[in-house]
Amino acid sequence: MLKAGVLGAGHLGKIHLKLLNQSERYELVGFYDESETTAKAVAEEFGYHRFDSIAQLIDACDIVDVVTPTTHHFDCAEQVIKAGKHLFIEKPIAQTVEQAVAIRELAKKHGVRGQVGHVERFNPAFTAVNHLIENPMFIEAHRLAEFNPRGTDVPVVLDLMIHDIDAILSVVKSEVKHISASGVSVISDTPDIANARIEFANGCVANLTASRISMKKMRKARFFQKDAYISVDFLEKKCEVVRMKDAPEQADDFAMILQNAEGVKKQIYFDNPEVEENNAILDELEAFADAIEQNTTPIVSLANGTEALRIAMKIIADL
């Protein structure tokens, strides 16, 4: 079993602690949090071992799970990697693209693995259909959330939209050619609602909307490609695939047939792939264990996290 420790015991940090403690792939050695109040409360409530310093925690681990505020990501990652330990780091990977690149270079230099916590890659609705998403040419994503003061220290692009940026980059195999964006600050000092249009070199266009001041929650993405439409509901964990194929000569009476101006007939087929229940955070942590033990590239690599941040920063610059 890999010995794992957690840096940061806030809301998400406590979830990671619980799951690492439950996992059969890891031995949870404990945590460190710079807040005396938080550290004491977590240790007393859950019984996890509390370390007195980051250095002590790192020394006791094979991998370190960084779940601190983004402002501390680079400093923590640097210490973990220089100690020769594997790094799991929450999204966004760092505050700046320069820091993200530095983390990648350090990991390469010290021969350690790194994975970024873009958890939607492990959402069961997305994993049920991502192998069916082939050369999408138009993508639309909406990620809406009710207001929560936690996370408003960063623009909504880094808080919410970056999830969809990473998911889209994972299925569009082309360079980003152009980005345009707009946003509005309503409650926070940084934009609370934003829309971005990402144009890729292969002609694909992605239209992303993110809001943290909505009256209801929504996390949906739709992928349009030749003869197919694929929808993913990340929140409800549902997906749908609608395909069009050449209509048979003798179609069923209940078949849905479309005919274009040239007389070509297409039949529409509906499919709802089975979505298996899972805990996406546990899956991403255990997938990292697989990458370490099998010496493979993590599903969400440091390079992936860096690219998602790079695109996010370009969107923010255009707001």
Walk me through this protein's architecture.
This protein has 319 residues and is an alpha/beta fold. The chain has two domains: 2-112, Rossmann fold; 122-279 and 312-318, Dihydrodipicolinate Reductase, domain 2 (2-Layer Sandwich). 33% of the residues lie in helices and 29% in strands. It has helices at 11-22, 36-46, 54-59, 73-82, 97-110, 124-127, 156-171, 280-294, 302-318; strands at residues 2-7, 26-32, 63-66, 86-90, 114-117, 138-144, 176-184, 193-200, 205-211, 218-225, 228-233, 238-246, 256-259, 265-271. The strands form two sheets. A nine-stranded mixed sheet has the order 7-8-9-6-10-11-12-14-13. Strands 2-1-3-4-5 form a five-stranded parallel sheet, sandwiched between helices. α4 packs parallel to α5 (97-110), α5 packs antiparallel against α9 and α7 crosses α9. The chain starts with a strand and ends with a helix. It holds the Pfam family GFO_IDH_MocA_C3. Residues 156-217 form the GFO/IDH/MocA-like oxidoreductase domain. This is Dehydrogenase.
